[in-house]
Every structure is written in structure tokens, then in C-alpha cells.
Design brief:
Length: about 280
Amino acid sequence: MYDFNPLFIRPLVRPWRQKKHVAIDEDRFIAPLPDLVVLKNSAGVFYEMFNYYGEEFSRHFGLMFEKYVGVVLMHSVRTAKLISEDVIRQTYPPEKGKVPDWIIIEGDIAILIECKATRFSRAAIASGTEEHVKDSLKQVIKGLRQLASFREACMAKAPGLEVLHKCKIFKPLLTSLEPLYLINSTFFREFLDGELSSSMGVMNLPWYILSLDELERLQPYLAKGLGVGSLLNELQNQSCSDLIVKPEKQSGLTFKDSFLYEVSQDLYRRLGVPMP
């Protein structure tokens, strides 16, 4: 009953025997869950590539993921300052420690952003056991540790981080490839805080986690002036979906106001498919 649904892997099924020499346009399949066909041809492509090429692909994809998050942020941050890891590395060499992929400076607030192309595994989704959930969160914990170490360096005004010396508040934000459902809830916060405390003695790290999908949905509102710092404060008491309701009503902005709308139009045009 609670096992992983095989339709996630093969969303199209042929419940009857295929006739020999049948033309492609005469063959017939059934899609019991049509939305999974879309998923298979979008996010599913990543997992097909990962299953075939393994870590070699995931390392390369991780770099592309970081760059794409940067593209979304560049279209989101208008009045604040956006700094890349490459800029920080000009004065803060690798031997001094890890550096976030992106940093947003809003007045005296610095949002430290680490990108991790991670997700809950099939075993974690199907069973929900602590062992499988914990295994799925290894990259999340790794990312939070990196952010915690860099935050300490910032608060200590380490040499090489002069661009951040005027900041007084440092907010660690981890961006995941897929939604990590309930990840900002009390249960997961206590679990992750416990991991940080036991592994590196970090207590009360004010971390936040947003998926790429959530960041993309927020983009038009951020571009119109919704501050990332104030957004993260709101996330302490509500989910991202609930948080979006207010700016949606107040601004009247829709997906057509996102930079992704034009990108989507171009993609559908090149595919020869009408925009939905």
C-alpha cells in the first residue's frame, strides 16, 4: 500500500500484447496518472541521466544547478546586492574554508545561499523511516554545515570578507533541486538542528530551505520589491505556498510577469507546441 509507485519510473503502460509490425501511430498505451508523463519528461530526465552516468553526471549537473539559481536570483534581486562565490574567492581563498554559492546583501543583512541538487529518495518517500530520511538529508546537512562555518567567519569579520564586515545579521538559505516537503517544519528543524549540534557544536543556526520551484514562484514578487530577508522571516511561521498568497493578492502579478514566461514561450515555439 505504501510502496513506491512504479508509474513514477514508467508512466505509460501497454496492458495488452503489442501486435507485430504495428505502425507507431497505431500502437496504444495508457497513462493511469497523466501528470506523471509530464514529470517523466521534465524532472524525470535528470534521474534517467543520473541512473545511467552516476556521480559523474551529478557533479556536472550540480555546477549547472548553481548557475541556474544565480540566473533566477539575478532576475529577482533589484535593489539589493548579489555576490557570487567567484567574487568572494578573489579575496577569500579555498584554504580558508567553504564559501556559499551566492550572497545577497540587503542593508546590514546578508543572505548566504548554498545550492544542493538533492531530494528525498524513493525509500524515504515510500517508508518514511528515520534511517532513509536521514540518508536523504546528507547533502542538506552538508550544506548547512558549510553555511554555519562561513557564517561564523563572517561574524568574526575574517580577513578577506571585508565586503560583509558591515553586515550584522547572517541568514543561511539552502536551495534544493526538488521540494523537500515539510522541511521547514518543527520536526525537521529539530532533527537538523540536532545533527548540526552533535557534529560541529552549532546551536540555533537560523537556517531556511527553499526549493528551486518555490524560488521560481517567488521571483516576480522579489523583482517587484519583496525583500528576501523579510521573506525568510515570514517563513518562520508559515509555508512558502501560504506566504505567496498575500503578495499575489496585493500585486496582481501572475506567471506572465515572471522572466520564465518568456523563456517558456520560446521553448514551446521551438517545439512547435501551443503555449497552454
